[in-house]
Amino acid sequence: MSDATHPFRRATEETPAARWALIAVAVGGLALLVGAPMVIVFAEALSRGWAAAVASLASRDAQSAIRLTLLITAIAVPLNAVFGIAAAWFVTKFDFRGKAFLITLIDLPFSVSPVVAGLCIVLLFGANSAIGGWLVASGYPIVFAVPGIVLATVFVTFPFVARELIPVMIEQGRAEEEAALTLGASGWRVFRTVTLPNIRWALLYGTLLCTARAMGEFGAVAVVSGKIRGQTATMPITIEMFYNEYLSVAAFSMAALLTGFALLTLLLKTALELRHADALSATRRH
Hints:
The chain is mainly α. It is 80% helix and 0% strand.
């Protein structure tokens, strides 16, 4: 049939001009919203040379913030990997009332303001609460200490691993696990030899996303940490402190380092995708 009999096809046909216009809008938007800010951050960090940038990162406050951020990330990410696997397993392998509600709860940190999450932690574990008062009296404070920062970070980053795993585990189904159990395999062996190989890439992606968010979290951490310089100030909080004190080189140097961590995470994810493209395709087809 001729195109005259297909007005819908003619109306939806993409012209070269429309194609290039869409490309220009996409590239321009990315350049303006992502590229330009990153360039400015690195340019400002190096505005007085490499020596000044390195010296600002070598200061006691900067070093303390870097160590604390890496420590919080090293604690929160494995916890969320375990929680994410458990939540995804429970949601996808069992049928029960309230499953939709549980999935909504998993997504809750995406919709709740991090500041609100931080305030909830303060109300639950602050010195004026029953639990928090007892913990403080016992010498184990939560709020304005590292445990509170870990709690806030775990809450904010919890959905990333679970949300990567749930679709993959739904597609995987239960047949392979049930067959392995029928053959006499233990639950741990079924998970290690059947489930984990099928979800490893989703688990890795969720972990990388969780890592990037954990290092950059500000709102919830700012509420529960107390912003104590050299003790509970993470990298994002230290950036704010430096900026408010007009230490622009120090602020942008720290911001550049934090951006570098995020870019490293993204590059690692991309490299793994390229190196294991065949395995990824097989997992997705599965």
